[in-house]
Amino acid sequence: RSCSFTGFSTVQSRKLAKSLSRSSVRSRMSLKPPKVYNSLQKGALIWDPKPLQVKKIFEALKKGLNEYLEAHQAELDYLSGRHKDTKRNSRLAFYYDLDKQIRSVERYIRKLEFHISKVEELYEAYCIQCRLRDGATNMKQAFSLSPATKASRESLLELYKNVQECTEDMCFIEGALEVHLGEFHVKMKGLVGFARLCPGDQYEVFVRLGRQKWRLKGKIETDDSQTWDEEEKIFIPNLHEKFEIKVTELRGLATILVGVVTCDSINFFTTKPQAIIVDITELGTIKLRLEVLW
Description:
four-stranded antiparallel sheet, 5 helices, five-stranded antiparallel sheet, 2 domains, 22% strand, 49% helix, alpha+beta, Immunoglobulin-like, disordered N terminus
């Protein structure tokens, strides 16, 4: 069986190579170069696409975009109904103002529809490259078990190149998809600690998303209110990174670690502001309140 499989390998691997070449994303799409993720180590280029994570983000993103589309479609329906009424019995200036609002909402809806179609196009191309890579990987593993001949070595080399090309294309698409993720506006709402928070206590909160960082300091006032040197920060969503939150208590020149937590951003792709209450300590004696608007 292995002999016949080896003879079959040369023809099949060449066909697969041609198929992969025709399907190359970079030959059909104008994409930005892949961003350097944390999975890329300094001094060595390591392609590390994560299909399962990309699928989760894509589904959350598409759901959020459809929510925005439905909300603006409802607004358009409402304005269109008012437009018909005011055409019959209203001032001309008010009628034109309403007409202007309708055109503005219609333009925004078209932008959203294009945005959704672009995201779907990118993810479809990503899935194709993922399937091609899986197929080439399976064939490479099968050929590696066959007797070592010149034909099998050539086939393995060809398949290795195909796997690398598909992997690179997947990373290019991930970089292009990140451009369409929008922005997260994160607002500081303060610490909750009941008896743990006392007037005069000072804290530092450090929020990180990939390479993006936000460091802010706050103080508990005598009336139990809190003052923070910053209240809002804009983060650009990332396909692979989670929010990392670190809280420390400042006591003179010393700092005491209160806790470190991570927070997934998948649930933030929605039209409504998301209130987040994170347990900073293991027992939940100190919590951090944030609000995220996408």
